[in-house]
Structure formats: C-alpha cells, structure tokens
Amino acid sequence: MNNNQEHKVLVVKYGGNAMLDDQITSGILEKLANMARKGYRVVVVHGGGPFIEDNLKMAGIESEFVGGHRKTTEEAMKYIEMALKGHVNSKLVRMLNGKGLKAVGLSGKDGNMVRVTRRYHRDEQGAKVDIGFVGDIERIDGSLLNLLMAHGYVPVVSTIASGEEGDDYNVNADMFAGHLAGALQADHFIMLTDVDGLMGDINDPGSLIKSLRLDEIEKLKGSTIQGGMIPKTRACEIALEQGAASAVITNGTRPDALQQSILNPENARATRFVR
To answer: Which residues have C-beta within 8 Å of that of residue 171, sequence separation ≥ 6?
Structure first.
C-alpha cells in the first residue's frame, strides 16, 4: 500500500442519468474499488432523481419543483425514502460488495449523523414559500463515518435526514455531499454529473473551464453556471470553505474521468475549484 494514499478521504457524489445505466454504474464502482484498494477511504453520497420520479408516478403523485428543489409532501416523502434507501442505496451496496469491498448503506438519520432545518424558498418578491419536507443542513457529525472507514468499510449514504422535531426531510444530494466532504475534511471531493464540467459555452465541449477560483464564481452565475450546475458549483464551494482540500466536477458517464481527476489531475477532463 502506498503510504501517501493511505487514509486519504475520497467523497464521491453519484447521481443523475448515469445511474440508469448498469454498465456505467459498474464501471464507476470498479474505479472506486480501485481507489479503496490503493488505501483511500471512500464515501459515496447518492441522489436518485430518476428513481424518485418513477416511484412518485406509480403512486400517482405529481412532481413539482420550486427553485430547483422538489416540493415534498408528507405522502411524497414516503416514496422518496423508498426510492433512495430501498432501491438506490441497497443496489449500490450490493454492487460494491460484489467488487470485494465492505459497503454499508446509511442515510443522514443513522447515528444522528446529519441534522437539518426546514427549507423555505424565497420567491421573486422575497415572500417565503413552503416547499414541504425539504431540508437544509444545519450540522454534520462525521464520527460514525470515520469509525466505519477506520475499520475498512465503505459508507454509502442516501440524502434523507431528520430535523430537531423528529420529522424526516429530503435534502438536495449535491448540497448534502458538499457539506459532508467539508465535515470529513476530504482530501478529494468528486462531483459526478452528465458532462465534463463547467463550459464557457455550453454548446462547445472545447470550452471546458479546467480551473476556477472561488472568487470567480459570482460573475459566471446566470451564464456558465445555470440550472443543475448551480447546486453542483455551490456544493464544491461549500466543501472547500468547510475544509475539503480539493473539489472537482467531472463526467460520471466516463468512469475513467473519476480516477484521472484524482491521480492525473493535469490531464483530466474536469473543472477543479481552487481557493
């Protein structure tokens, strides 16, 4: 084992449409298994939008998004938890174990790991809009994850957490992962998405922004940083602000991109955020 890599913490956020392709998922998990074998302490945080969508459709519940967050009724919350913990989490755990790892499925509720407050959206007039059981992270206790990693386990975390009053909340998976990477002081935080990273021109793959300072983010909002890239960029910002050493957005549909972002960053097709 390479002592330089031993005990380095790698937090990977996995989600999006790449999750629908079992071959791509297997490729990503194989790369994670390689990193674990090299001595990295790996934590996987996952969303599951397409699976949540399927569950809600089957239950006859219409999806509504407010400010990029899924409006979540008490009824919808049951089906969201079913999709994330019952389907996606257990599948990733099974696949990782099949690659020789000791994966453990968790949510933010386990060990009181993540505590959230209810999120309210502000509309254009500044009025408070209730979007239901959607949570903002208030604090994270990384001791359970550190304990598991120290004993050779790979935590796989779904983004459900509880509030002070005991209700369960759905948390944006990007935000959850960014906060978790910061709390664990991750050496590497890798955000896997459906594209290579942030593009200066979204229609030109040659315009990939390979490095972006935190103080340059503001001026790109609304142009380069829009839609689904808003929470991903914010998550990388949070991770670095709270103590992660490195934060990267790269392409989860190309399993090699994950390993390259860590082992060969100069040549990786990715956007790396720097302080």
So the answer is: 108, 114, 116, 134, 135, 136, 137, 159, 160, 161
CA separation for the pair 63, 57 (Å, rounded): 8
What letter would DSSP give residue 97? H
> SS3 of 179, please?
helix
Cα 187 to chain centroid, rounded: 15
CATH number of the domain to which 87 belongs: 3.40.1160.10
The parent domain of residue 24 ranges over: 9-274
The pLDDT tens digits along the chain (275 residues) read 344 566 899 999 998 777 889 999 999 999 999 999 999 999 999 999 899 999 999 999 998 888 778 899 999 999 999 999 999 999 999 999 999 999 999 999 999 999 999 999 888 888 898 999 999 999 999 999 999 999 999 999 999 999 998 999 999 999 999 999 999 999 999 999 988 999 988 788 789 999 999 998 888 887 888 888 889 999 999 999 999 999 999 999 999 999 999 988 888 999 999 98
* 3: in domain: no
Domain count, the chain: 1
What's the rounded Cα separation, in Å, for the pair 169 and 69? 12
Does 63 map to a domain?
yes
* Neighbour-count burial of 125, counting CB atoms closer than 10 A to its CB (0-12 exposed, 13-18 middle, 19+ buried): exposed
Q: Which of 12, 6, 36, 3 is nearest to 244 (CA)?
A: 12
pTM, rounded to two decimals: 0.93
The C-alpha angle with vertex 51 and arms to 75 and 76, in degrees rounded to 5, equals 10
| 169: its two tokens | 């909340």
Q: Confirm whether 167 is domain-assigned.
A: yes
DSSP 8-state assignment for residue 86: I
Q: Decide if 1 is inside a domain.
A: no
